[in-house]
Design goal:
By secondary structure, the protein is mainly β. The chain has no helices and 15 strands. The strands form 3 sheets. Strands 2, 4, 5, 7, 9, 10, 12 and 13 form an 8-stranded mixed beta sheet that branches. Strands 1-8-11-6-3 form a 5-stranded antiparallel beta sheet, with no helix packed on it. The protein is elongated and about 45 Å long.
């Protein structure tokens, strides 16, 4: 299992992805720990570790030999997975795997772990994949808030054990 670290100080400027683009391969991004998903994208939490996975499948009609993945993220990340080789590059993380897959087969899962100390951020997570049979892009709007909220979101209310309304402060 290989691991690399990327510092999100330099950003690749790309438009927030609203539609996936694909040609011979398909990308699935799945939020995991400390990332919630909603209709308007993903939400992360400041000062907590965050994790999502990247699964890429050969949807073409030929075998595919090797895969290169660029992960553009607005925070510090590292990548790991069985037989993946990852390293930091400007604007994100570059990962490669040499596995041969047949049509319909998925490469081993790439796990992306990251964290940030930034209290509020609105950006996107974008993944670009390239193989011998084609390339693909998948992205999702992403925001980080002190409690997983944006500054424009109303306070999140919850009831304490005494039945009183408590407001989650910033």
């Amino acid at each position: 299992m290989a691991t690399a670290l990327a510092v999100g100080a330099a950003f690749l400027v790309v438009p927030a992805a609203s539609a996936d683009e694909s040609n011979g391969i398909d990308i699935v991004l799945t939020p995991k720990s400390s990332i919630s998903s909603s209709a308007d994208g993903w939400r992360g939490f400041a000062r907590r570790s965050m994790r999502f996975t990247v699964d890429v499948t050969d949807i073409g009609d030929q075998n595919d030999d090797g895969l290169s993945v660029f992960v553009s993220v607005p925070f510090t990340v590292r990548g790991s997975g069985e037989r993946w080789d990852c390293w930091a590059v400007e604007g994100g993380l570059q990962c490669e795997i040499d596995d041969l897959v047949v049509p319909g087969e998925t490469w081993p899962t790439l796990t992306i772990d990251g964290s940030t100390t930034i209290g509020y951020m609105r950006d996107s997570v974008d993944v670009y994949a390239e193989s011998t049979n084609g390339d693909a892009h998948a992205g999702v709007p992403f925001r980080i808030g002190a409690c997983g909220r944006s500054r424009s979101d109303p306070p999140v209310g919850r009831r304490d054990s005494g039945g009183q309304q408590a407001v989650h402060s910033r």
